[in-house]
UniProtKB/TrEMBL annotation:
This is Transmembrane transport protein. Keywords: Membrane, Transmembrane, Transmembrane helix. One of its GO terms (molecular function) is transmembrane transporter activity. InterPro entries: MFS, MFS_trans_sf. The chain crosses the membrane at residues 16-39, 45-67, 79-96, 169-188, 216-237, 249-266, 278-295, 301-323, 335-355, 361-384.
């Protein structure tokens, strides 16, 4: 396992690109919980908290493909710093709207999300120009999917640590600083400054003209819905058991499981094709989340969310491989951005639904939203495979192939 990852990190710039990109992506793990805790500290109900958090996620979902298309057209250096600067204004405006104004908070969350820099798709698009060996590129995709879980381990824990010693608004400020510093550091190396997308065939749909890509996005949207429900359910569970900081710990445990599962998955060669692996992984996530509806003891909840996380990063790695196969030429960044968008759109739906379910029915209902989302994600992937419209072969290294 170490040999595979050591090889992909040995070329010049690869370590720096990965570290700086992860720093800039830290807000992805911090912002949802930071926004939720900040708004709760202002006395807003779970329905409102879930709605504003959903607005942030939906705005990222809308802005990601638009910024990805801009990157494919103008390059990463011209797009990333501008988007990061505008997103920072949104986060700081959210802090300023902490007087209980729901409209102002919602508008600020939309601005912060809409212009969130698309660092994830940019790095995944860049790997083939930094790494020449196809095996190294494949390992880099797996490592990227695994280490992004560090964001979801460190992010919530950092938010919990900050809110335990300072006002919740401090967590939003730190989120902003991390995004700006990471983005500006990432665009310094030569590969980023010189990267250009391949020529593309003009088409308003871009990568979405690929049927197989659209099929994948449906399933991943429900994976995102489960993650969004988990964000809200853990905050509600924290209050239910009266244990401050438990929400961040549970989210961190889930992400730690994903980190371990992803690293193990990426170090092995698998005989089953990608669509079959994706279906099995989604089934595993669903089965691990199912007992949460019973609202068990915190230790049991921790074990369950950890086991669920073991399947998360491998499932996302399958998504990277599939996108690499089916993205039309010249649309790779936008295609990867659409994957992020699918997850975020589902995340926003899950957050909003779980918040409303908790407020109207009870905490068990917020966990039920998580379970139902997982069931639909698995069923959708299984249905596509049974219908012989599977997602693709076992691996993919670039986005040069034409759409099917």
């Amino acid at each position: 396992m170490l040999a595979a990852y050591r090889s992909c990190l040995s070329p010049q710039h690869s370590k720096y690109l990965l570290i700086s990109n992860l720093l800039g992506r830290l807000p992805n793990g911090m912002a949802p919980l930071a926004i939720a805790l900040f708004l709760r500290s202002q006395g807003l109900g779970f329905g409102t908290v879930g709605a504003v958090t959903a607005l942030y996620g939906l705005s990222m979902a809308v802005g990601g493909p638009l910024l990805g298309r801009a990157v494919d057209r103008f390059g990463q250096v011209r797009v990333l710093p501008v988007s990061a600067g505008i997103s920072a204004v949104g986060f700081l405006a959210l802090v300023g709207a902490g007087d209980g104004s729901v409209a102002a908070a919602s508008a600020a969350a939309v601005l912060a999300g809409l212009f969130s820099p698309p660092l994830e798709p940019c790095l995944r698009t860049l790997w083939p120009s930094v790494l020449k060996d196809p095996r190294d590129i494949s390992a880099a995709y797996a490592l990227d999917a695994s280490l992004q879980e560090v964001v979801f381990v460190a992010g919530p824990l950092l938010v919990v640590g900050l809110t335990s010693v300072a006002d919740p608004s401090v967590a939003l400020v730190v989120t902003t600083v991390a995004m700006l510093v990471g983005t500006l550091a990432y665009i310094v190396p030569e590969p980023v400054r010189h990267w250009r997308a391949e020529p593309r065939t003009p088409d308003w749909a871009g990568p979405l003209r690929s049927v197989r890509l659209r099929q994948l996005l449906v399933s991943l949207a429900f994976v995102g819905a489960g993650l969004g429900a988990l964000n809200i359910a853990t905050v509600a569970y924290q209050e239910h058991v009266g244990s401050d900081g438990l929400s961040g710990i549970l989210l961190g445990v889930n992400a730690a499981g994903a980190l371990i599962g992803g690293l193990y998955y990426g170090a092995r060669e698998w005989r089953a094709d990608t669509s079959q692996r994706l279906t099995v992984l989604l089934l595993g996530m669903f089965l691990c989340n199912l007992p949460l509806v019973l609202v068990p003891h915190p230790i049991v909840v921790g074990v369950l969310v950890f086991c669920s996380g073991l399947f998360l990063a491998p499932a996302l790695t399958c998504g990277f491989a599939i996108i690499g196969e089916v993205a039309p030429q010249g649309t790779v960044t936008e295609a990867f951005a659409w994957m992020v968008t699918a997850v975020l759109a589902g995340n926003a739906l899950g957050s909003s639904t779980a918040g409303t379910a908790e407020q109207q029915v009870g905490i068990w209902a917020s966990f039920l939203v998580l379970v139902v989302a997982g069931a639909v994600a698995f069923a959708t992937a299984a249905l596509f495979r049974r219908g012989r419209s599977g997602f693709g072969g076992p691996t993919a290294l670039s986005g040069k192939q034409a759409a099917s």
